[in-house]
Specification:
single chain; about 160 residues; alpha/beta; four-stranded parallel β-sheet; 6 helices; globular; binds 4-nitrophenyl phosphate
Length: about 160
C-alpha cells in the first residue's frame, strides 16, 4: 500500500481538495487496495474544521467529495507516509523542519513537481482571493494528481 500525504498551510483549501481528487481518481481506476492518501496543514489554525465553503462549492461543481476535517501535520507523519506532497515552497520548507534528513530523502516533494504544465512550483493559496482562485487550484491539482498516480503505478507498484 502506497501512502501519500498532501500538505498545505491551513488544511481547509488546497490539500483537502488534493485528497478529494486523489480519492476520486483511485476509486475510478479501482486502485483503492494499492494506494491511499490523507491531508494535513503545517499550522493548526483550523483544526477540526470542514473545508472552506468556497472549496466545498468548487468540489461540488466537479463532483469531488471532501470528507476531511482539518488536522495539523505531526513528526510521526513523515515516517508513516511514503510520499509527502507540499502545495507550495513555504509548506515544503516547514515540513522539512519536522524531519530528519535521512528519513525525508526523496519522499518530500512539491505536488507541482508532477505538473505537466510548467510553473513556479507553487499551488497558489486561494484563501484571501475570490472564487476563481479556487477553480484554478482545482484545475491544477486535477492534472497534477493524474500525473502523480500514473507515476505511482509505474514506479511503486
Ligand atoms: P490552505 O489555505 O493552506 O490551502 O488551507 C489557507 C487556509 C487558511 C489560512 C491560510 C491559507 N489562514 O491564514 O487562516
Amino acid at each position: 500500500m502506497v501512502k501519500v500525504l498532501f500538505v498545505c498551510l491551513g488544511n481547509i483549501c488546497r490539500s483537502p481538495m488534493a485528497e478529494g481528487i486523489f480519492n476520486d481518481i483511485i476509486l475510478k481506476k479501482k486502485l483503492q487496495k494499492v494506494m491511499k492518501c490523507d491531508s494535513a496543514g503545517t499550522e493548526g489554525y483550523h483544526v477540526g474544521e470542514w473545508p472552506d465553503k468556497r472549496m466545498q462549492q468548487t468540489a461540488y461543481k466537479h463532483q469531488i467529495h471532501l470528507g476531511h476535517t482539518a488536522r495539523q501535520i505531526v513528526k510521526e507523519d513523515i515516517a508513516k507516509f511514503d510520499f509527502i506532497l507540499a502545495m507550495d515552497k513555504a509548506n515544503l520548507a516547514d515540513i522539512l523542519t519536522l524531519s530528519y534528513p535521512n528519513e525525508s530523502a526523496g519522499k518530500i516533494m512539491l505536488i507541482r513537481d508532477f505538473d505537466p504544465v510548467s510553473g513556479d512550483g507553487n499551488v497558489p493559496d486561494p484563501y484571501y482571493g475570490g472564487i476563481d482562485g479556487f477553480e484554478e487550484v482545482y484545475q491544477m491539482l486535477e492534472r497534477c494528481n493524474h500525473a502523480l498516480i500514473n507515476c505511482l503505478i509505474k514506479d511503486s507498484l
